[in-house]
Write a structure and sequence with these properties.
- With 204 residues, this protein is mainly beta.
- It has one domain: Lipoprotein localisation LolA/LolB/LppX (outer membrane lipoprotein receptor (LolB), chain A, Clam), CATH 2.50.20.10.
- The chain has an 11-stranded antiparallel β-sheet with strand order 6-5-4-3-2-1-11-10-9-8-7.
- The longest helix has 13 residues.
Length: 204
């Protein structure tokens, strides 16, 4: 899977997203949640429109700390330490540093989010009896794909996000077993590259 597919950042389905008649109170609820949640711990299922799937564990501590541990056979680790995001492809023994400003999922990690039409703008909104689905984009950064987030209403909490990556692949990350505002070990957000196992050299 490509790097941006892993960073979309949250089960594959799409809600019928309707054009939003801007309701300030509803948008404010989304903004308040994103600003007030301090930590997040969850299991996730990641699916994509190209048929790929992955599962793992997600840890978030605001501002800007994230860890995504992918289960086998996906041999990938993503760690954001607050300064930059590290993408470690263990199969390729490759480490890539990524700037927070280059990914739409930074919305979930940042402090002081303002959905004001300038910093962040609502492009679509939909709700039913149990869910709220909102699509947000950065007007000043058209190169960054919009992110669609799904929230449960009772309690109001993030349960899914999705983006379309630069290759036009839709990637959806769904969360379950979610725990909010718990104390997380700071070591989760420190990256140390695992040493490759030494090859055994037998006697000649």
């Amino acid at each position: 899977m490509r790097i941006f597919a892993f960073l979309t950042a949250a089960l594959f389905y799409t809600f019928p997203v309707l054009a939003l008649e801007k309701d300030a109170q509803k948008v404010q609820q989304v903004e308040d949640y994103l600003n007030n949640v301090r930590t997040l711990k969850a299991s996730f299922v990641q699916t994509a429109s190209n048929g790929s799937t992955a599962e793992g564990k997600l840890f978030v501590e605001k501002p800007n700390k994230i860890r995504m541990e992918y289960n086998a056979p996906t041999n990938v680790l993503i760690v954001g330490n607050g300064d930059y995001i590290i993408y470690n492809d263990k199969d390729l023994d490759q480490v890539t540093n990524i700037d927070y400003d280059d990914i739409p999922a930074s919305l979930i990690l940042a402090n002081n989010i303002r959905i004001d039409g300038k910093q962040i703008k609502v492009s679509n909104y939909y709700e039913d009896d149990g869910s709220v689905v909102i699509t947000l984009r950065y007007p000043s950064k058209p190169e960054i794909a919009p992110i669609t987030m799904t929230f449960t209403k009772k309690p109001f909490a993030l349960r899914q996000w999705s983006i379309v990556d630069p290759q036009s692949v839709e990637v959806i990350v769904s969360l379950y077993d979610v725990e909010s505002d718990t104390v997380l070990d700071e070591g989760l957000f420190k990256f140390k590259k695992a040493k490759s196992p030494k090859k055994y050299k037998g006697k000649k």
